[in-house]
Write a structure and sequence with these properties.
The chain contains 24 helices and 34 strands. Helix content is 33%, strand content 23%.
């Protein structure tokens, strides 16, 4: 008898073992349908096939069915999943849910069915019961979850239960495959009949004969001949053609006539040669190239060399917006060998990409955001991580809270492939790994075409306000002047404000009341475009109160400003300018990224206002002015990485200016003109920033000298939560010195979705085994949760928090 250990899509500590019936066969990596709980059925992944049961005394359930003939999870992928689960303190089920398209994760739906041979003649039914049975008059099954909505009656489930008790309805579990291949109808030419044909029937015959083809999509044939469905139906009856259903890819492909040729500059060629040389000794190389130095062309040349040898390459970018610009550039070189993968695709599209990667003709180069790291690569040789310093590579919302750069390093180790990190502003951690000899490094200090670095002007808005020289509440006189000059020259402008919405806070001018979210301890952000107040933590929308609930007056004012307010002020100052906004709110719809960026790239937009999306690697030929509206918002964050990230962000957004034929101008507005980071940005002094950060982190026990684990405890009762936090602190003290445990502390936003939060930050010396330390943390949490009062306290791990 064979047994299989199965990964289920739940946060379960262990794998679950099932008997594999004799009539079924399964390999590691295939999906199997298995029962779980009293009646539910789920699709899990086989992690191991074994000859013996782990526990001979236990009664194991049987596998219901095997869903795949061949594995959809490759052996090296499974190894990566296992490493992620261990390193990021989560379950394999968490990794399963994160890594695979949701269409692969099947689960049963509870359905109701009318019992066969039941008669309603002698049964007395209530009005609600009769309404329910009217629904089942069609003889079909109906989902329990949607029945109440269908009926529109109260307490439908009570009536359903009574009908089940009367043996009129019965419950069943039904698994439905949610992925459906897209099909297209083709018209296939058969023969010319002997009988006389009408003019339109003759048109069909002549079309196939003249074009020497045997089939064509039905929609295309109708368009080419301007004929109706009825004409084609008649041709089918006459035996001229037949209709054939064919599977169609949801991923659009184009025909590419020729590949773009390019020549590397001397500086690029030197960097390229040095990268290849360093790859002989190092598995990971950092390419530190200034903005607009042409790093992308170097990536392309490396990729060309590898795919000519039959290898595959993964090309990671931090934002979907970057895939938009890069796609056209890479397709000019690689054509349909290029695949794209990110969360903007539908679930069905992601399934098709996954299946193609497993097939005989996989994509040779895959461009994507962090989720592309989980795709099945059969022959990967290189992972390029562009803008490697970006925090967007860190998953924040759900478990596992992985960092794509860290996972890529392990992916390379498992597959024996190389890693190239590219950036104009390397992370402190990557530079430290260069200093310690773990990574190689290549410098590229020359902009492509010898374009000059932009002039950076600091506008001290604090001093300007003191002197009453701020004509606009948002823009300094120098920024307005530079914007006007650019518009006069038909040049473009990018304005960076790292806060979306209209106003940060809406406040009653009479009593100071600020509207807060009802389920989160956070003030609401005003969104003028949609005329609502929004909680940026739980997403709830609220209408702006007409009168203040505290004082009864109606004198609300806006405090602070977001991208919407900046956009409005730009339109007031430059009414003839064409203005667009690039932020989370304007990019919710499908293809909205592409439309906004293409419009700006084609010169249809003069001024682009945006959040950090506009700072990351985008290349626009005609941008001459970049304005940083409020640099202070990045400098004043309570985070040990605040200075590093502020430097990176300011340097990156500055790099959008003057990228081709002119020296650009960057205006940085700040109230802290003497801040060390502002001075380092002015002189582009990366080394000084790096050295000061390394010294500070060494003294205060932060990465790269220490590893961090953030622990969040959550509960609806604030007092229970605090007692649990104190209990956990006492347990952690048994394994960690007090100076390495920060907390418990109440975060700035202490309640989200009715759940209160307290946090710990635990520091671990890199010279110690991190797995041993994590085991001790886990043991302390288990001891805390074993106390009855704290059994419902939620705990969340974040390894290497950003």
């Amino acid at each position: 008898m064979l047994y299989v250990d199965v990964i289920l899509p739940f946060p379960l500590e262990n794998l679950y073992t099932y008997i594999l019936p004799e009539n079924l066969s399964a390999k590691i990596g295939v999906r199997v349908l298995v029962p779980f709980g009293a009646r539910r059925v789920y699709a899990g992944i086989v992690a191991e096939v074994r000859n013996d049961a782990p526990n001979a005394d236990f009664s194991y359930k049987e596998v219901i069915d095997v869903l795949d003939a061949e594995p959809i999870l490759l052996p090296n992928q499974l190894k990566l999943w296992q490493w992620i689960a261990k390193y990021y303190c989560c379950s394999l089920g968490d990794v399963f849910k994160m890594a695979m398209p949701s269409e692969f994760r099947l689960e049963s739906e509870t359905v109701l069915k009318r019992t066969e041979d039941c008669s309603l003649d002698s049964v007395k039914l209530s009005s609600n019961e009769q309404k329910i049975m009217d629904v089942f008059a069609d003889g079909k099954v109906h989902e329990l979850s949607s029945l109440q909505k269908e009926l529109g009656v109260k307490n439908a489930f009570v009536s359903v239960r009574k009908l089940i008790d009367k043996n009129i309805l019965s419950l069943h579990e039904e698994v439905v495959e949610t992925y459906r291949p897209l099909q297209e109808t083709y018209v296939s030419f058969l023969s010319i009949p002997q009988k006389k044909l009408t003019e339109k029937q003759q048109k069909i015959v002549h079309f196939f004969q003249e074009n020497q083809i045997t089939e064509l999509p039905k929609a295309k044939l109708k368009n080419e001949l301007d004929i109706s469905d009825a004409v084609i139906s008649t041709a089918v009856k006459n035996g001229i053609v037949e209709l054939v259903k064919k599977e169609k890819s949801r991923i659009a492909e184009k025909k590419f006539e020729s590949q773009r040729e390019f020549t590397l500059s001397d500086a690029q060629q030197t960097a390229f040669d040095e990268i290849e040389k360093q790859f002989l000794e190092k598995n990971i190389v950092l390419l530190h190239g200034v903005t607009s130095s042409g790093k992308t062309e170097i990536y392309i040349r490396l990729i060309q060399n590898l795919i000519s040898q039959g290898k595959q390459v993964l090309y990671l970018v931090p934002e979907i917006a970057l895939t938009t610009q890069l796609t056209s550039r890479l397709q000019e070189v690689f054509g349909n060998d290029l695949g794209i993968y990110h969360s903007g695709f539908s679930n069905n599209q992601r399934v098709e990409i996954w299946k193609r990667m497993l097939g005989d003709n996989p994509y040779k180069i895959m461009l994507g955001t962090r989720s592309a790291i989980f795709l099945p690569f059969k022959n990967i040789a290189l992972t390029v991580i562009d803008e490697e310093q970006e925090t967007s590579y860190k998953q924040q919302e759900m478990l596992p809270r992985y960092h794509a750069r860290t996972v890529a390093v392990m992916l390379g180790k498992i597959n024996g492939s190389k890693i190239l990190l590219g950036t104009a502003t390397p992370s402190v951690e990557s530079e430290y790994n260069v200093k310690t000899g773990k990574y190689g490094k290549v410098l590229l200090n020359e902009r492509y075409g010898n374009v000059s670095l932009p002039e950076i002007i600091v506008a001290d808005v604090k001093e300007l306000r003191r002197k009453k020289q701020m004509k606009s509440p948002i823009f300094s006189p120098i920024l307005i002047e530079k914007m006007q000059e650019a518009l006069n020259k038909k040049e473009q402008i990018i304005l960076f404000q790292n806060h979306r919405g209209y106003a940060s806070v809406v406040e009653c001018a009479d009593c100071g009341y600020v509207p807060h979210c009802r389920v989160c301890d956070v003030s609401l952000t005003s969104h003028q475009y949609s005329k609502v107040l929004v909680c940026h933590y739980c997403g709830r929308n609220y209408t702006l109160p007409k009168v203040c609930p505290k004082c009864g007056k109606s004198n609300f004012t806006d405090k602070g400003f977001g991208t919407e307010r900046v956009e409005e002020e730009v339109q007031n100052l430059f009414p003839s300018a064409r203005v667009a906004r690039l932020d989370f709110d304007t990019t919710r719809k499908k293809h909205s990224y592409e439309e906004i960026i293409s419009s700006f790239e084609n010169g249809e937009t003069d001024i682009l206002v945006g959040t950090q999306m506009v700072s990351k690697g985008l290349d626009f030929d005609n941008v001459s002015v970049v304005g940083v509206i409020n640099a202070d918002s990045m400098l004043n964050l309570p985070d040990f990485r605040a200075n590093e990230q502020a430097f990176q962000m300011l340097m990156q957004v500055s790099g959008r200016a003057g990228r081709r034929n002119c020296k650009g101008t960057v205006v940085v507005q700040t109230s802290q003109a003497e801040h060390p980071i502002i001075k380092q940005v002015l002189t582009a002094d990366f080394s000084q920033m790096l050295n000061s950060q390394l010294l500070e982190r060494y003294n205060f026990h932060y990465p790269p000298y220490f590893r961090l684990v953030s622990l969040s405890l959550r509960h609806r009762d604030k007092d229970v939560l605090h007692r649990a936090s104190l209990s956990l602190y006492d347990l952690l003290r048994k394994s960690f010195a007090p100076e390495f445990i920060l907390g418990p502390e109440i975060p700035p936003v202490s309640r989200v979705k009715l759940m209160y939060t307290e946090r710990f930050l635990i520091k671990m010396d890199i010279r110690q085994k991190s797995e041993d330390m994590k085991t001790k943390i886990k043991f302390a949490i288990e001891q805390m949760l074993s106390q009855k009062e704290y059994q419902y306290v939620q705990t969340l791990y974040d390894v290497d928090p950003m």
